[in-house]
Design goal:
Layout: H1 3-18, H2 23-31, H3 41-53, E1 58-62, H4 68-77, E2 82-87, H5 90-102, E3 109-113, H6 116-125, E4 131-136, H7 143-152, E5 154-163, H8 179-193, E6 197-206, E7 209-218
Parallel strand pairs: 1-2, 1-4, 2-3, 4-5
Antiparallel strand pairs: 5-7, 6-7
Length: 223
């Protein structure tokens, strides 16, 4: 199959299962000059379904961009839930705030601006209630560091998702010099080696091309 066929399948899924109610968010992101690296609409709905399945009420997102995935996660946690999302670029955070407020979920979302590793250290010092789900979609070279922080901020049964790990299939190249590919391999191997985690990887195709994510669950003493 070709990428055009993958995109056609995405269009069908959007028409039948997802809806295009958030297209204004994507248009606002494009108008503001944000890079077009949001999750696709079917992937956004997939995050929503995962969060609903996990009955997540507290979600941590690392990498806000324009708030497209944030909106899906905020819907999933419900009116009594909260999403804490971390964004490095102040401009991106400003665009995201407008998108989230327009979508009617702004009051459920706290945006923290700054380097994610710094924000995570501050967040840990605050000793918040554990997060039920962590979605990692930021600078790829720090994926393993983000997973380690996620372990400190979650509980047994929490879900950790790392986006963009397949890298057009290049994750299979053990000799790759690409920093993002090496980081993807590192985070997959971290999940495999970490006794507190059990996980898998899943390849995806669609309008965003060929990629995939890592999915892990935090284990308890009885697991």
């Amino acid at each position: 199959m070709t990428s055009a066929e993958w995109a056609e399948v995405d269009r069908y899924l959007v028409e039948t299962l997802v809806g295009d109610g958030d297209s204004e968010t994507l248009r606002a992101n494009a108008a503001a000059g944000l890079p077009a690296i949001d999750v696709s609409p079917p992937q956004g709905k997939f995050l929503y379904v995962i969060a609903k399945t996990a009955r997540a009420r507290r979600v941590l997102e690392i990498g806000t961009l324009g708030g497209y995935s944030t909106t899906w996660l905020a819907r999933a946690v419900g009116k009594s839930g909260q999403v804490v999302t971390l964004e490095f670029e102040p401009k991106h955070a400003e665009v995201a705030r407008g998108n989230l407020d327009r979508a009617g979920v702004g009051e459920r979302v706290e945006i923290r601006v700054g380097a994610a590793l710094d924000s995570l250290a501050v967040l840990a010092e605050e000793q918040p209630e554990p997060f039920d789900l962590v979605f990692i979609d930021a600078d790829k070279v720090n994926n393993s560091n983000y997973v380690r922080w996620a372990l400190r901020l979650t509980r047994p049964g929490s879900v950790i998702i790392v986006d963009n790990v397949v890298r057009n299939g290049r994750i299979a190249d053990a000799d790759s010099a690409d920093a993002a590919v090496r980081a993807s391999r590192d985070v997959i191997e971290l999940i495999a080696a970490e006794p507190r985690l059990d996980g898998t990887g899943l390849q995806t195709v669609g309008g965003k091309g060929w990629d995939g994510f890592a999915y892990a669950i935090v284990l308890g003493e009885d697991d």
